[in-house]
Design a protein that fits this description.
The chain is mainly alpha-helical. The chain has twelve helices and four strands, in the order E-E-H-H-H-E-H-H-H-H-E-H-H-H-H-H.
């Protein structure tokens, strides 16, 4: 699978696994089935009302159906943070190419440009561009600055930390988080402390997949520096937070 490198403002590099054209096409077909069912339901719902508009009935239906089609893509990607039913079923997600969560303007732009991608029919432009583009982006992705990635099925960092807290309350051995905090107090170079502080402050603004990958990279760096290993079930983010406690007095 194609890997997409990301370097965060904290100068930590990691990779996304990009979704290929075939997987994206399958997700599109699933979404098309859901959307077709929604359009059919709309037609049934308007069957008794449209005749009241006389000569304007076709225009009214065209306006409402077009709004439903565009609202389907935009609404799901805003509500589900970059996923539609097809993407969710296949474990795909739209993210910003800088590793941050999607902005509403990106969602709107990439989906409005489906009007270009669908030309000359059956998403011909989208398919051709995605096949030729090195990162499998369609026109909407290129203009909006977005990627479609394979998402790992993992627990959110907070859920992992809560589970670890409960497990550690029943153990008698020394807490590895406390060990990391004490070991970091005098071992982290001054030049890294500002970067560590920025990472902790900005973690809630990161996309979940970016956040997991970023904290995994930082935790690996500090585990090697401090010669400490994660305890079974311990999260990378909790390890980094412990290091921050020792270094920054958090």
């Amino acid at each position: 699978m194609l890997q997409y490198p990301v370097v965060t403002p904290e100068n930590v590099a990691f990779h996304y696994t990009l979704a290929g054209p075939a997987t994206r096409l399958l997700a599109l077909l699933i979404d098309a089935c859901v959307l077709t069912a929604a359009l059919f339901a709309l037609s049934l719902g308007l069957a008794l009302v449209l005749p009241l508009f006389g000569d304007y009935a076709a225009a009214v239906y065209g306006l409402l159906s077009s709004g439903l089609v565009l609202g389907f893509w935009i609404g799901f990607e805003l509500r589900w943070n970059g996923q539609t039913p097809g993407k969710r079923l296949l474990g795909l997600r739209v993210v910003g190419d800088g590793g941050l969560s999607l902005e509403p303007t990106q969602v709107i732009l990439r989906n409005v440009l489906r009007l270009v991608d669908v030309l000359p029919g059956l998403f011909g432009v989208a398919g051709a561009v995605a096949l030729l583009h090195p990162e499998h982006r369609r026109v909407g992705d290129i203009v909006a600055g977005t990627l479609v990635i394979h998402e790992r099925a993992v627990l959110a960092p907070e859920a992992i930390r809560d589970a670890l807290d409960r497990a550690q309350s029943d153990r008698q051995e020394p807490d590895p988080v406390a060990l990391a905090s004490r070991a970091a107090a005098g071992a982290i170079p001054t030049v890294e402390r500002e970067l560590l502080s920025e990472l902790i402050a900005s973690r809630d603004s990161l996309h979940p997949a970016t956040r997991l990958a970023l904290f995994a990279a930082v935790a690996g760096h500090y585990r090697q520096m401090l010669a400490l290993e994660l305890a079974p079930g311990q999260s990378d983010e909790r390890f980094v937070l412990a290091v921050a406690d020792g270094v920054l007095g958090r």
